[in-house]
Every structure is written in structure tokens, then in C-alpha cells.
Amino acid sequence: MKEEFCIMPESPFWEIKRFEGCHRHEVFGAANRKFSIEDGLVIFLNPAIHNMSDIGIHFNKTFMDYAHKVGQKTWQEYYNKTQEDFIKRYGKNYL
């Protein structure tokens, strides 16, 4: 299985390496999906916590908000960027 670039920290809520049967989730999707992939802001989830149940990140605002906050903080630290830099790239502040 191809390893994908991921800068997200380890978490009990997601994996940082792809495993059999998992789904890749771009932390900042929609219009920012390409940036998320380029920047390593991806996590790997089993289908139930991705989009196959009510607890999945696509339907759970608390989970999504947490991933956004961790993603922004991680991006700023990894790339030595400011909050303003993040807003320029992703269009919104999540912190």
C-alpha cells in the first residue's frame, strides 16, 4: 500500500498511516482538498468513523472541529507559518 504524506500527529481518534480498509480523510476538504493533500493534512479512518455512521467525522461537528484545530496548529508549526498565513491558504481560522 502506498504511503501518503501526513504531518498530523498521532491520535486515539485517527491513524496517520493508511491501513487495509481505511478511508483517507482530508482535514480541510471541499475547495481545500488539494491543499490538504499537498500539505500532509490527511488522516486515515475506519469507515464507521469516516462517513458510514452518525459518529463519523462528516456528521460529528465536535470531531470535525477537533480535527480542524489540530490540523491548523500542526500546519502552522510544521511549516513555521502564522495564523494569517493559514487563513490565506485555507480561507478561515479554526483556532
Average of pLDDT: 95
The count of DSSP E runs of length 2 or more, i.e. the number of strands, is 2
Strand content: 5-15%
Report the end-to-end length measured between terminal Cα atoms: 34 Å
**Major pleated sheet:** 2 strands, antiparallel
Structural descriptors:
single chain, 95 residues, globular, 4 helices, mainly alpha, two-stranded antiparallel ribbon
Which secondary structure elements does this structure contain, and how are they paired or packed?
Blueprint: E1 23-26, H1 33-39, E2 42-45, H2 47-50, H3 61-78, H4 83-90
Antiparallel strand pairs: 1-2
Write structural notes for this entry.
This protein is mainly α. The protein has a domain at 23-87. Helix content is 39%, strand content 8%. It contains 4 helices and 2 strands; from the N terminus they run βαβααα. The chain has helices at residues 33-39, 47-50, 61-78, 83-90; strands at residues 23-26, 42-45. It has a two-stranded antiparallel ribbon with strand order 1-2. The model has no long low-confidence stretch (mean pLDDT 95).
Brief characterization of the structure:
With 95 residues, the protein is mainly α.
